[in-house]
Amino acid sequence: MKNVDYIIVGGGYAGFFFAHQLIQNNKTFLIFSENGKSASQVSAGIVNPVVLKKFTTFWLAQEQISFLKSTLKEIEEYTGKNYLINENIHRIFHDKKEQELWLSKSETEQLEPFLNPEFKNLETVLNPFAAGSVNLSARLNVEEFFNDFKAFLKENNHLREQHFDYSIIADNSYEQISFKHIVFCEGIGVKNNPFFSEIPVMANKGHHLKVQLSKPLTNSFTLKKKHFLFPLNGDSYYYGGTYDPNERTNEIDDFAKQQLIEGLSEFYPHDFEINEVNFGFRPTVRDRRPILGSHPEHPNFYVFNGLGARGILNGCFFSKELYEHIENQKPLMPEVDLNRFSK
């Protein structure tokens, strides 16, 4: 019988950032993650303190970004890389009204740290009303983050790339593994979990394209109009992603693909070739807060879910909150506590 402090089920941002907390605190653990890419692994990796549709910010934005930066430096100590790409988002304005709204919001206490009031005229793309830069925004190198973290877990015998069978959990053991705690970080897969299937997580399907541009961009930042555009390794670019809370099929949706083609064509007036179309299902919650907590009948069974479109920030920040709750009995923030739904 192998003894561990934790079993983690799920290999997205929630599972990997929680694993980091265990590494930092010298806890023993195994993480179960099936082969195949999670929604986290096909995400854009955008780190953004501003909701770019209405130019607002969100709960704990600055604190989450600061914590992410310090966490990625910790991860660098054992993977040898820092995966944060410090290239700001530049939001292309649709019209004069958006320019004026941006300037107005940039003078408020909440948005002043994030909205740069000096606009830029960009090359290669159509931007007759210029673009505004988002301070403190960046993006994660998603592919390298997951590849390297997974390699580290494998080398240290923390990773089991296999299906997790709920039916064989018995008396705090799984197969020949005895555990003190188990944390389910399964994203939308939680709907198949008999312990937490009732939590109010909803799937929000998102598509993105990998494209080759006939005229490469000259900028070293992320562009945003309707969706995000930024360079990947080699000569391809990421463009996406869409939001569709009603589409459930596990295949490419032609409407979403066309939406992306039209969105890119709106500001990129040159030819481009689509190399790939990818999609994933984000685990979202109506109140846009993650869900953390324990099972009422199995107090050492925990759920960490509902990270939504801000998976990196929520996964990183609240992994620490959950760890402190489990190990040091620190009360969970009421805004993210699973128990908020039973009131």
From TrEMBL:
Domain FAD dependent oxidoreductase intervals: 5-322
InterPro entries, sorted: FAD-dep_OxRdtase, FAD/NAD-bd_sf
SUPFAM superfamilies (UniProt xref): FAD-linked reductases, C-terminal domain, Nucleotide-binding domain
Signal peptide: none
Keywords: Oxidoreductase
Record carries keyword Cytoplasm: no
Keyword Glycosyltransferase: no
Highest taxon of the lineage: Bacteria
Gene3D superfamilies assigned to the protein according to its UniProt record, in alphabetical order: D-Amino Acid Oxidase, subunit A, domain 2, FAD/NAD(P)-binding domain
One Pfam family, short name: DAO
PANTHER family, A to Z: GLYCINE OXIDASE, SARCOSINE DEHYDROGENASE-RELATED
Protein name: FAD-binding oxidoreductase
